[in-house]
Design brief:
GMP Synthetase, Chain A, domain 3; five-stranded mixed β-barrel; cytoplasm; transcription regulation; transcription antitermination; TF_NusA_KH_1st; Transcription termination/antitermination protein NusA
Length: about 375
């Protein structure tokens, strides 16, 4: 084929592909075409001539002795030629030489041209899909924005993201949110698969903790530039979330920067999450102190970390006044579930029997003489 290098450059530019990869794809297409229209058992090689900008199909045959047993094996015989027959092409050949026989696909008529067109189209399409797969595989866990193109009967939402179509399953949508065709939405890439029949498949999520983290990074410059680090995040989508934050700069308040003036930053993130309440917590590497913070709004008396045989923290026993237990558990158990998710520990609550005063101090319950004295004090 003439001007093959020009064709390679044109395809690479149009599809946004590396010329080297396009070259290999075209070579494969030419070889597969040669096998189909000439002989599938032949060994072919595609060679590009940089001077003439053409691609040559070369059949490579190994020269063997006339009585070599491989010449009688139907499966591998096409890859070999007897020395007496080889000398008809070149009288200088010797045993084990590689005899190269050029082929012109144009000589095989319209069948070859049609087959070559299909092969090129197939291999270029596979190359494009591989590039897209690698591109979005590296984007797993990152934020993307797209436009809704369809909502099916199962309430799965199809979104056009750049040059591909992604799907947001109903299970990955926040409870209560609805989308219609034309809506623009944000989500994180949850999974990327390659299907031989349907090509690249991208699944999005709006319920992943990573989605909340990405929204915070988008809204809070201190998180985006690394001055504030998100150490952990736990969500019950659409209900409530807890985020552990750590400042890497002594002059930056991690919680204050994330919440923003009058809560403007955290409210913007909450609005994207359909009103999800977000608790921002200052992270500490001291597990007892960290658990006491993530149990807020409950006021904790004591935290004991229980370790397993390997010395790893396994569960936490949290002691608290009786009137704080309902706060620690939260509505439908949300608070303690989030605290357990964020800490990675099973949390057990133990009532101390005391109560909490208006100023937040814990008053132990009195009995016997102490209780009687308290009545007259």
């Amino acid at each position: 084929m003439e001007r093959i290098l020009d064709i390679i450059d044109a395809i690479a530019h149009e599809k946004g592909l590396a010329p080297e990869k396009v070259t290999e794809a075209l070579k494969t297409a030419f070889i597969q075409t040669a096998k189909r229209v000439i002989d599938n058992k032949f060994a072919f090689e595609a060679v590009i001539n940089n001077e003439t900008k053409t691609l040559d199909i070369i059949q490579t045959i190994t020269v063997v002795s006339d009585d070599d047993g491989r010449l009688k094996d139907e499966e591998i015989a096409p890859a070999f030629i007897s020395i007496s027959e080889a000398k008809e092409y070149d009288d200088q050949v010797e045993l084990d030489d590689q005899l190269q026989i050029p082929h012109e696909l144009e000589e095989y008529g319209r069948t070859a041209a049609s087959q070559l067109h299909r092969e090129i189209e197939y291999h270029i399409q596979r190359l494009v899909e591989d590039e897209m797969f690698n591109k979005y595989k590296s984007k797993i866990g990152t934020l993307v924005t797209g436009r809704v193109t369809r909502v099916d009967a199962q309430n799965s939402t199809y979104i056009e993201v750049d040059e591909v179509r992604a799907i947001l399953p109903m299970k990955s949508r926040i409870k209560g949110e609805l989308f219609k065709v034309g809506d623009h939405m944000k989500a994180v890439v949850r999974r990327v698969n390659m299907d031989k029949e349907n090509g690249i498949q991208i699944e999005l999520s709006r319920t992943s903790p990573k989605f909340l983290e990405e929204l915070l990074a988008l809204e809070v410059p201190e998180i985006a530039d690394g001055a504030v680090i998100i150490e952990g995040c736990a969500r019950i989508p659409g209900e409530r979330a807890k985020v552990a934050l750590l400042s890497t700069h002594p002059q930056v308040d991690a919680v204050g920067a994330t919440v923003g003036v009058r809560g403007v930053r955290i409210n913007a993130v909450s609005a994207e999450l359909i009103g999800e309440n977000i608790d921002c917590i200052e992270y500490t590497s001291i597990p007892e102190l960290f658990i006491s913070r993530i149990m807020a709004p409950a006021i904790i008396s004591n935290v004991e970390i229980i370790k397993n045989e390997k010395g790893e923290a396994e569960r936490a026993i949290v002691t608290l006044p009786s009137d704080q237990k309902s706060k620690a558990i939260g509505k439908s158990g949300i608070n303690i579930r989030l605290a357990s998710m964020l800490s990675g520990l099973n949390i057990e609550l133990v009532e101390s029997g005391g109560t909490t005063s208006e100023d937040g101090t814990i008053e132990e319950s009195k009995d016997g003489v102490d209780a009687l004295e308290a009545l007259f004090s």
